[in-house]
Amino acid sequence: MSLINLQPKGWPAPKGYANGLMGEGRLVVIGGQIGWDAAGRFAEGFVPQVRQALSNIVAVLAEAGGKPEHIARLTWYVTDIGEYRASLAELGPAYRAVMGRHFPAMTLVQVVSLVEEEAKVEIEATAILPKV
């Protein structure tokens, strides 16, 4: 099973995300993951926290037998959109190190704060795994 990209005719090609994906299979919903490790230690800085949050998503997904290419949607919550924009050059390689060249449908919004005071980003995911 693979996800099918949904790209309306005439729309510009998105960069680093998909407008929509479609697939059939087992749905996996992953709650917001933040940039801390299994011991509760936060990574230093925005990009390292993103990389850790994505790694945490992949770890939870692996419990269901999934891989990054099964992720259909990511929703990002950041505390500073300026920091996100200023980090784009570093963010791409960090993202690809965890997710490869898989770009699901994504939304990114700025929020006032997150539950954990040190958290700069929280990312939730929805994945579609093949039927068994």
Q: Specify the number of helices.
A: 3
Order of helices and strands: EEEHEHHEE
Strand order of the largest sheet: 3-6-4-5
Average pLDDT over all residues: 95
Percentage of residues in DSSP E strands? 25-35%
C-alpha Rg (nearest Å): 15 Å
End-to-end C-alpha gap:
11 Å
Catalogue the unreliable spans. Answer: none
Assembly state = single chain
Structural class: alpha+beta
Net shape: globular
Task: Please give the largest β-sheet.
Answer: 4 strands, mixed
Which percent bin holds the helix content? 25-40%
The beta-strand count equals: 6
Structural write-up:
The protein has helices spanning 46-63, 81-86, 88-99; strands at 4-5, 21-22, 26-34, 71-78, 105-110, 121-129. The longest helix has 18 residues, at 46-63. The mean pLDDT is 95. The strands form 2 sheets. It has a 4-stranded mixed β-sheet with strand order 3-6-4-5. Helix 1 (46-63) packs parallel to helix 3 (88-99). The protein contains 3 helices and 6 strands; from the N terminus they run E-E-E-H-E-H-H-E-E. The chain is α+β, with helices and mostly antiparallel strands and 132 residues long. The termini are close together.
